[in-house]
């Protein structure tokens, strides 16, 4: 356990400002102990975005290969993702090459994830967005197999998410898949995700259940708790906010789609509960 940052910070803070200075010094020292410093981050570079881009498709290829043979559904998920990112020519070729590298038996999963985490400067919203993208590969056939789940555990560990956090994100990802399928009457993995309008009729009970889970809440939660969860999810996935933290420009459309789903889930819940 790293404690010297906290010890020294509290000591010098006390010398400069008594108890309030000590508390401030303790907080600053705590952040240095965790390797975060004062959190003065530079704007993301093209190299950082390239690391994100490569890791996304390489890890997706690794998940696809987990069951031993890459299926048509898994290839379709990767191709759909490339379509949604509007990748063509050299960009699409790079994505396909990264996907191929991920399928290799000696693919360095942990090293790739560690490099991505460093490039993203440990920013939780970016790390979570990456994990959510990988879950699309895991859900390619509608369920997560044991080998895929083991890889997701490794991804979560390397990115700093606990098993409890992973289970919650998994549940929300499954709800997102069901939410889309029920809202559009089609398969989430089959493409055509972006730009579609949600059906205007009142949502069924199943759709409402998915909407609650998509926001990470339950029917028993209060209106205020649900509203707070909605705002939190919107903040986490706001495209401009993610772009400022290093999201590659090609992935902006995916972030927009996610916020549209969160918005629609909130609208359905708000209408069903009569929230003003």
Automatic annotation (TrEMBL):
UniProt topological domain (Periplasmic) ranges: 1-6
Domain J: start-end pairs: 210-276
Domain notes: The transmembrane domain is a dimerization domain.
Transmembrane segments: 7-28
Transmembrane helix is among the record's keywords: yes
Chain ranges on the Cytoplasmic side, renumbered to this chain: 31-276
One Pfam match: TerB
Bilayer disposition of the protein: Single-pass type III membrane protein
Stored Gene3D superfamilies: DnaJ domain, TerB-like
Cellular-component GO terms for this entry: plasma membrane
GO MF annotation, one: protein-folding chaperone binding
The protein, known as: Co-chaperone protein DjlA
PANTHER family named in the record: CO-CHAPERONE PROTEIN DJLA
Summary of the function given for this chain in its UniProt record: Regulatory DnaK co-chaperone. Direct interaction between DnaK and DjlA is needed for the induction of the wcaABCDE operon, involved in the synthesis of a colanic acid polysaccharide capsule, possibly through activation of the RcsB/RcsC phosphotransfer signaling pathway. The colanic acid capsule may help the bacterium survive conditions outside the host.
Keywords: Cell inner membrane, Cell membrane, Chaperone, Membrane, Transmembrane, Transmembrane helix
Main location (coarse class): membrane
Superkingdom of the source species: Bacteria
Subcellular location: Cell inner membrane
Keyword Chaperone annotated: yes
Organism encoding this protein: Aeromonas hydrophila subsp. hydrophila (strain ATCC 7966 / DSM 30187 / BCRC 13018 / CCUG 14551 / JCM 1027 / KCTC 2358 / NCIMB 9240 / NCTC 8049)
Description of how the protein assembles with itself and partners: Homodimer.
